[in-house]
Amino acid sequence: MRKFRSNWSQGDRERYQERSDSYRERAGTSYLSRERWTHQEVVTSPLPKPVATSSLMASSVDFKTYVDQACRAAEEFVNIYYETMDKRRRALTRLYLDKATLIWNGNVVSGLDALNNFFDALPSSEFQVNMLDCQPVHEQATQSQTTVLVVTSGTVKFDGNKQHYFNQNFLLTAQSTPNNTVWKIASDCFRFQDWAST
Domain NTF2, which positions (predicted)? Predict the structure, then answer.
């Protein structure tokens, strides 16, 4: 599992630690069979269906559950994405939708064939994620498609190059079946964050 450095507030660190502890506690249970990655895919249990209710308390509990599940999927996704990028790059496009778009430092790459060619041309890498944030995207903005915005930042060193700070934003979309949910990248925006020295 990737280590996240402590740019987080105390509350963020505590929530992350609680989730990490919870994951480790459930390692011997059926949790692993429900929420896992297979063939470089992020697979989780089915997402709850939104329930129409007039109770503000019930709707906030349902939304909290939805946010927690989205955050778990995002954390798992980040671990899989960067490990695959560093160690199994040929499998990376399995995480993308067929018509996904990548914007890499302002250069647009669309479609799986173009993505494969682009990733093959990159030198080997070592990513270190320092920050992760995520939130569900409101269904009105995504035509009722379950979508999560994932934001990461950290450092990367490509073979033969100096280390760079980076920021990366993903839009993950859920491909749901009755038994599970597979998360795929619909949009990916990567940008180096190095400041020019004066």
Answer: 73-192
